[in-house]
């Protein structure tokens, strides 16, 4: 299976997961979007050397994945695919920031290692929560929720169209890849020059297809906005989910729960 086909298959699995019928899937999309926003806001607001204070936030993605019946292997695999970006962002920190920081009595490490660990942990938490939100809600429901929360229509429409036509772009790339493989013998036609030519051709095909799609949408009455689904009131279950998790996130942000637990464990061992 080619890389493009494999990635499209993994992307389509998100839609399959979103169509499940579990307790977390039945929570209103607006409640899940707002709870995720509070989670992300709390996680990114910690100081650069924070590691232990971030650990209590691991509970949220673990609980959501368990209630949503999402395979742990799939989530770990998706995180590993995106992890090189976090490594590139923080890999130089241990070399640049050599300030010693005490972590245990008589033991210290360079502050750069703490900031590197903090970047990696923040990346894992934020990426995991974003994946879980899509996998337990679905992109159409998320976009409807964003519209109902008065997010600018231009942003929401672009987000929804981007997600929808990623599959069309991938299918176009697979057809071009299949045509190249049928016309190549061995390793011929697989070099950097040919790949660059194929990317240029893919860009031209994408622009042409986008124009045809836009013309078809105009003929069907598209006026720049996509009408959301019918609005319903938040239930008690939705409010409990939103207020309960948001309160827990704010408490973990203001109270150093992770540090207190870490000191308690170290003190017990000493």
How would you describe this structure to a colleague?
With 270 residues, the protein is mostly helical. It folds into 2 domains: 3-151 and 232-269, no CATH class; 158-223, no CATH class. The chain has 11 helices and 2 strands, in the order H-H-H-H-H-E-E-H-H-H-H-H-H. The protein has helices spanning 3-18, 29-44, 59-67, 72-90, 93-96, 111-137, 139-148, 153-183, 192-219, 236-254, 257-269; strands spanning 100-104, 107-110. Strands 1-2 form a two-stranded antiparallel sheet. It is globular, with a radius of gyration of 23 Å. The N and C termini lie far apart (54 Å).
Q: What is the gist of this entry?
A:
The chain is mainly alpha-helical. The protein has eleven helices and two strands; from the N terminus they run αααααββαααααα.
Task: Summarize the topology.
Blueprint: H1 3-18, H2 29-44, H3 59-67, H4 72-90, H5 93-96, E1 100-104, E2 107-110, H6 111-137, H7 139-148, H8 153-183, H9 192-219, H10 236-254, H11 257-269
Antiparallel strand pairs: 1-2
Features:
2 strands; mainly alpha; two-stranded antiparallel ribbon; 270 residues; 3% strand; 2 domains; globular; 11 helices
What is the structural class? mainly alpha
Quaternary organization: single chain
Q: What composes the largest sheet?
A: 2 strands, antiparallel
Helix content: over 70%
Number of helices, counting only DSSP H or I runs of 4 residues or more: 11
The backbone outline, from C-alpha atoms, is globular
Order of strands in the sheet with the most strands?
1-2
What is the residue-averaged pLDDT?
Answer: 81
Report how far the terminal alpha carbons are from each other.
Answer: 54 Å
β-strand percent reads under 5%
